[in-house]
Amino acid sequence: MCNNGGIVKIQSTVLLEKQIAETPLECLGRFRAEKIAAGEADYASIPMTYAGRLDPMASGVLLVLLGEECKKKEKYLGFEKEYEVEILFGVETDTQDVLGAITSIYNGVDIVEKITHIDLQKYVGKFTQKYPAYSSKTVNGEQLHNLARAGGLPDEMPTKQVEIYSIERTGEKKMNGAEIAKSAVENISKVHGDFRQQEIVNGWHAFSEKYGKNTFQILKIRVSCSSGTYMRSLAEKIGADVQVGSLAFSIHRTKIKGF
Fold this sequence. Notes:
Blueprint: E1 2-4, E2 7-9, E3 13-18, H1 24-37, E4 48-51, E5 58-66, E6 81-89, E7 91-93, E8 102-105, H2 111-116, E9 125-130, E10 138-139, E11 142-143, H3 144-149, E12 159-176, H4 177-188, H5 197-211, E13 215-225, H6 231-241, E14 246-256
Parallel strand pairs: 5-14
Antiparallel strand pairs: 1-2, 3-5, 4-5, 6-13, 6-14, 7-8, 9-12, 10-11, 12-13
Helix pairs in contact: 4-5
């Protein structure tokens, strides 16, 4: 953006860093407010939209379209993405991340051995991925997350073809149950809107009381993939394949190819 003779020229696209617990719309609202506060009044009325959403618990690069570019959104939806993901093993939720009700817990002594021998390369390539139950995908005019909360998910969940171009292990760490629950609750407390926060926070408190001293394993990975690939679904699948259960403890989008 430049200022030429008092006239502010607004770019057609901008990359923002979405924070944990923000929705994409809240991220856009924060950006607009910052620009207005800086004296750039044109931002008060310019249309804005985003291309490629991020879940509330995910952070990272968000591509935002401004002005007339909003009408060209379709051409921005297919870009390759890169993510850094932390997979927590031994815990499952109904959202596949920490913003969900805990559905199962596994803390067997063999969990470290199981994680050590995970072959991440078998996930490289094209495959069919189910949409998460708690997602904005529409079925018969209703978003899946609304159907899930009403107990009315379809027998056949919608799917899409996705592709993972590369995946690599970048590290590991251990956390006890109390640390995990504290981190989850702190992030959930920042979320606005109705995401069943109180029910979910209560679940994490109960988890901390029962498993607070237990040690859990976290695997860090970097993934390059096609647009629309759900990292929380991938995290859950990796845990299911080694029969210990898992979720996406953190998701950070680091790149959108071409930007």
